Amino acid sequence: MPISDSELINAWTQVLTLSQLKKGDNVTVLTSANTHPQTLSTAITAASLMGATVNRLDLLPVNGEKSLSRDSLAYLGTTPLTGNRSAIAALKESDLVLDLMTLLFSAEQHEVLKAGTKILLAVEPPEVLVRMVPTAQDKARVARAARKLEDAREMHITSAAGTDLRCPLGEYPAIQEYGFVDEPGKWDHWPSGFILTWPNEGKANGRIVIDQGDILLPQKSYASSAIELTVEAGFVTRIEGGLDAELLRDYMNSFDDPEAYAISHIGWGLQPRARWSTLSLYDREQTIGMDARAYEGNFLFSLGPNNEAGGSRTTACHIDIPLRGCTVRLDGEAVVKNGKVLDKEMA
Predict the structure, then answer these.
(1) Are residues 186 and 310 located together in one domain of the fold?
(2) Which positions ≥6 away from 340 have C-beta within 8 Å?
(3) Which residues touch 157 (CB under 8 Å, ≥6 apart)?
(4) Are residues 144 and 249 in the same domain?
């Protein structure tokens, strides 16, 4: 169902309030060719009504000739900020950047964040944004999970489908995503609601089984049959199965980059308002699939870069795969059991 401007302005106001926007703050709205016009207009209205000085920075799209998909996360090469010193300077002088174009996995984004600027990504359709407006309770739940994850030295993931993956931890921080930016230099994504980290370099080993009904992103498709990934020394070394496995292999091979096969971030979903089933209700170009990434109880793993966590991998290939029905253990203690989050265990 369509969302009225007033509903979306109210949603933006809640998010900006949680993000501690103050009268007189400088806000830059970052846009490009695929920015949703209603999201843009209501963001400007909400921030202006709260007394902020609002600017719009519109940048030309890049990588379209290289990517196999129109999805903004399908190719992570150069960004519209690459070599664009004037744009970077404008963002660094802002208190808050509202990213309505998708600026991810880039040295330029890290440079802006290091200047103390907050960056909030918001590119899902208005109806998804309104359904998953973040709350203080979302942050508290993610923070509880983060405390568990920060103390752990191994994540062990199993499933009835055959997943059995061990990931030593400790080299990388636990990253909290809860949908708003409430401290200088923080990046977050509205909507979200999950916890993640990266395995120690070269140490993840085991097997991942993507079962029928699990989701591949940016393909934005449900697996129709099982795909088995063999993980050795932190990299996927075999992709076995039927047609879905062939499609995944061909897509990854197109990048011609061994680093595309590295295990990237790992974690689990904590957003009860996100639904596993909604991907089937949208055209592929309408959404980047945040319902799939955030739905409560998933095990979300990724292949590709780790520079978001301070690592050196900058491969253009980035694949997110949320799995259903997994058990996630930290140092032997279950935090997710058969796809159900054990919140009491994380109190």
Answers:
(1) yes
(2) 297
(3) 163, 164, 165, 167, 206, 208, 266, 299, 301, 326, 327, 328, 329
(4) yes
How is residue 43 written in tokens? 């963001």
| pLDDT value of position 267 | 98
Tokens of 212: 């029928």
235 is in which domain, residue-wise? 136-346
DSSP string, 105-144: S-HHHHHHHHTT-EEEE--S-HHHHHHT---HHHHHHHHH
Helix (H) / strand (E) element for 227: namely strand 227-232
Q: Alpha-carbon distance 65 to 244, whole Å? A: 25
Residues forming beta bridges with residue 56, ordered by sequence position:
29
How many angstroms separate the Cα of 220 from the Cα of each of 126, 272, 291?
19, 20, 11
Residue 140 and residue 127 in one domain: no
Task: Assess whether 83 and 148 both reside in one domain.
Answer: no
Residues 85 and 158 occupy one common structural domain: no
Cα separation of 291 and 13, whole Å? 22
pLDDT for 72 equals 67
Q: Which amino acid appears at position 315 of this protein?
A: T
d(C-alpha 178, C-alpha 133), whole Å: 10
Q: Decide: pTM greater than 0.70.
A: yes
So what's the pLDDT on residue 319? Answer: 95
Residues 53 and 179 in one domain: no
Which pair of structure tokens corresponds to residue 161?
A: 């489908």
The C-alpha atoms of residue 37 and residue 11 are separated, in whole angstroms, by: 16
- Same-domain status, 40 and 162: no
Residue 64 and residue 31 in contact, taking contact as beta carbons nearer than 8 Å: no
Asked if 339 and 268 sit in the same domain, the reply is yes
165-190 burial, b if ≥16 CB within 10 A, otherwise e? bbbbbeebebbbbbbbbeeeebbbbb
**Which residues, given as ranges, of the chain have pLDDT below 70?**
63-64, 66-68, 70-77, 344-347
